[in-house]
Amino acid sequence: MQNKRTVFVVGHRNPDTDSICSAIAYAELKNQTDDSMVYIPARAGQLNAETHYVLERFGIPHPTYLNNIGSRVKDLEIRHVPGITRRTSMKDAWSLMSEEGAFTLPIVTGDNRLEGIITVNDIATSYMEKQDSALLSTARTPYRNILQALDATMVVGDPNAVFDQGKVLVAAANPDVMEEYIKPHDMVIMGNRYEAQLSAIEMDAGCIVVCLGAPVSRSIQNLARDKHCAVIVSPLDTFTVARLINQSIPVEFFMKKENLMTFQYHDYCDNIREPMMKMRYRDFPILDKKKRYIGMISRRNLLAARRRAAILVDHNEVSQAVENIQDADILEIIDHHRLGSLETITPIYFRNEPVGCTATIVTRMYHERGVDIPPKIAGLLCSAILSDTLLFRSPTCTAYDRAAAESLAFIAGISCEEFALEMFQAGSDLKDKAPEEIFYQDFKKFQFGDITFGVGQISSMSAEELSTIRTRVRPYLEKSCREHNLEMTFFMLTNIIQESTELMCYGSKVDAFVEEAFGELPKDGVIELSGVVSRKKQLIPVFMEAINKENME
Fold first, then answer.
1. CB of 97 closer than 8 Å to CB of 120
2. What is the distance between the alpha carbons of residues 506 and 479, in angstroms, rounded to a whole number?
3. What is the CA 314 to chain-centroid distance, rounded?
């Protein structure tokens, strides 16, 4: 059975309760209504205190952390080319390449750790370049490799021994001439001439190779044993033996083992593309986390990389999406924000409604598809609506949000008012949080024309706590501008009870910009906004209008 495709259901990079709970609830709905794929809820950032409380309250595990949705090596078509040992003969390596249609073979240890690679070019080079007649001994060639390469039989000697001294030569002259060039330990290729065999053994040859399957006399065999000379008989002729014997050399003599370019199974394709293109190799080994060999990939595999699939909830802008979203296969978008900058290659299911919370849309979709909402999922969806609408106080809240939250609260067995207070208190308990963690807890980047800015927000039921937070996060306004290449940074300190926001501002043009937007200059980088609690509906639209006026002027 073919493996089902995995689809990540994921919110934005700085996830709030709506982003997380809607992802979990929608993944659950998709898994119940579509068995052709596997839907996994994911998060593109760290959970804030409020969301953590909600998940713990309803016993829901944290979603999978997904900081990059780009294709990875494991998403490619990896060729599982078998590994060979360093003592494998060049002949066997070539045969395996032919069987596998491979251009590169990995050389591995017994526990599958990569030691080197051998390529078709390496084998061709070993034949074409001028070789020393002592090459076989220099490479410490096992006799079993020689027997295999020559289809030979060992009459005298140990097949497990190694030819590690002397050169290889052909005995084409008379015995008296042979005495001048045969040295101790040499391997001598010859025919069935008794005198030549006798002379080679008496000259302390290390091995004689008798061609054309000629029988070796008992006296020659006995003498060879006494002189510790191996005797090999091959059915091949002398020319063929001389031509093929180098195929017995172990691959370790020609393999590449320094500066190998390997990639990890979990590497992102974006990270390996450039180094791969710079190398002239055709294939590249893939290793697991323990550096064990898995298989091979080529440039062609990289070009045919299968995109990872995603459904986006609670956002539709590249700047807010998980990294490398442009390289993902986006299947759906479920959102309640303005239309952003995201583009897709093919038409997709896109649902965007002017309600206060994505969870309200997800709740509708459960009803539309006739799927009962489990109590735990109802609790998550209700929490998201209460959070996004600030217990129905936000101007983004609609009658649909309130109705959905109340019906979900009934299923989950909770009271909207009581649970919202518990949730807000848990979310506003920031005394143990680092300033940077607080600043980026709910931070989003926006781009309108040529202007890019960021807006963070913290909501609390305590004016005293908001005052403390103001002091702690102030340095991060400047830092965020610098690190994220923003022109302006804003931070909303929203008082839920008073339904107001202290807006902290930073940027070279921020004074003129804020005055254009709200008709008032900030004082010491802060402006009081009575009745403003929603970033989406009360702040961003005003900023957009100010930018449009500036562009028109």
1. yes
2. 10
3. 25
Whole-number Cα distances in Å, 280 to 48, 136, 466: 47, 29, 59
* Terminal C-alpha separation, the chain: 63
Give the percent of the chain with pLDDT over 90: 62
Strand positions, DSSP E, 33-109: 37-43, 64-65, 104-108
Q: Which two tokens stand for residue 271?
A: 């990270």
pLDDT per residue over 450-469, tens digit each?
A: 889 999 998 887 788 888 88
Render pLDDT for 277-318 as a digit per residue (tens, 0 to 9): 877 778 899 999 888 999 999 888 877 777 889 999 999 988
Model pTM above 0.70: no
pLDDT at 177 over 80: no
Distance, in Å, from the CA atom of 264 to the CA atom of 73, rounded to the nearest integer, reads: 7
| Residue 337 · residue 316 · CB < 8 Å | yes
DSSP 173: S
All structural domains of the chain: 5-70+307-427 (3.90.1640.10), 74-127+253-303 (3.10.580.10), 140-248 (3.40.1390.20), 435-552 (3.10.310.20)
At residue 211, what is the residue type?
Answer: C
